[in-house]
Amino acid sequence: MKRSNIVVLASALSIVPVTTATGQTATQVEDRMTTVTAPLAITKPLAAQAGVAGTVDAKAGAQSATAPQMTRDNGAPIGSNRNSLTAGDTGPVLLEDTTLIEKLARFDRERVPERVVHARGTGALGIFRATADLSDLTRASLFQPGKETPVFVRFSTVIHPAGSPEGARDPRGFAVKFYTDQGNWDLVGNNLPIFFIRDAIQFPDMIHSLKPSPVTNKQDPNRFFEFFSGTPEATNMLVHVYSNLGTPASYRTMDGNGVHAFKLVDKDGKVTFAKFRWISRQGVRSLKGDAAAKAPASYLTDDLYGAIAAGDFPTWDLMVQTMTAEELAKLPFNPFDDTKEWLDAPFRKIGEMTLNEVPENFFRWTEQSAFAPANLVPGIEASPDRMLQGRLFSYSDTQRYRVGANVMDLPVNRPRVAVVNNYQDGQLDMATGKVDVNYFPSVTQGKTVDPSFAPAPYKIDAIVATAPISKAEPFEQAGQFYRSLKPAEKADLVANLAGDLGVVTSARTRVIMVSYFAQADKDLGTRLAKAVDVPMSEVNRAVSEYQAAVDARYAGRQ
């Protein structure tokens, strides 16, 4: 039986010119990606904390100048932190040892529930500087040339648990929290420009299939390929994640994508639709699966933190694609389908982000950070993207469960502007000051709302139904991506796919999956069929059955 191709990755560096307003062909990742053979050597040993300021590694044994008195949580000083209170030399430990009891009780509660997705992550602080005036498109205040906005960025894997190797094949989370003067804006996306599914109602099922089996506790290609065999729209994402983009060489050398379409609303209420993309100034570098498997488990964190500690601050250019409603209507696919890119819409540079600081505490920042697509600011609103619509609820809800109702009071999540609302109490409530009027409206302690900040109105004229989207063509862009790859990258994609698909025991699943890739590109299907021992005659029959059985509207053939 072939071994599954779930692997690990490493790091490398290359500098590319500053991007400017440009067309899609200059920013498409397949035109920029390069596969490298080994991790980039870092200035400090990878096993260490890479010389990050304030760590034991960086202090190299130097003694501290001060030694503050240790206390309990109530501030009372303690007299011993190495020996419990006991009844004599051989006697038992006493329950009245409040220092011991508090210390153990706090230790027992150090962990919050792990994220269901994006559990393995690394964060860094930095600055976003706007380079373009977008007042003709949006009232969002951060897009004024030269204006700087603090940011916190969290990179992550999606499926694998907190203790997993950083290089396991996966999309990479690329979440940016902008601390704007109008509140926090979270641009929560991935390194890949599309996603597996287009409707949030499928998200729990997809994640269940990709997570370890509830019986064996092992991730199993039999399970997730069975799911994808019933989800043809995932084909585009699968060719991306099974290319070498699924094993990036460094967090610094990968692009980021907002994935979804958003509404930009100007001061007069005019709506323009937009997609956002981060372009790495360091280039796009990936690893082959065998090189990735040999990388240290935490090398991505070491690489990012080591580069920042050495003053080699990574930078990304923020690009935007914009289209009017009339232009979107002319696309051959649903413009709000997140399994598709807007391939013909040009990019425009609107800003640049530099990461220049390692957080002082990993848990307080990276683990307690709570990103949510619902964190929007005036001038940026949600589009009808079905996946985004579900994420507006799900992400905020999971953070309130994971960290608590007052998650937004924590320093990493707290807006840098005054927060005025009537929310109260709950776990870890940090509110201060006397507030008797916790309701609205009130004349004795009035609060105001400005109607100009209301969401832009829009008209709906539709039949309410649980129906798939029209113009859902699931294979065309997957084929375009495959054909744009270099020959060596195509071979790696086939090998990576075969590594997992080849262990699937269901002949039906293997045939259907190969038939999807064959409909994306005949050469891809033929090579993959040979690699996983599937006869092309069966693949061709599956293609015919798919085209005959699937509703023409769903298959995108109208």
UniProtKB/TrEMBL annotation:
Belongs to the catalase family. This is Catalase. Residues 1-20 form the signal peptide. SMART domains: Catalase. Residues 71-448 form the Catalase core domain. It is an enzyme of class 1 (oxidoreductase). It catalyses: 2 H2O2 = O2 + 2 H2O. Transmembrane segments: none annotated. It comes from Novosphingobium soli.
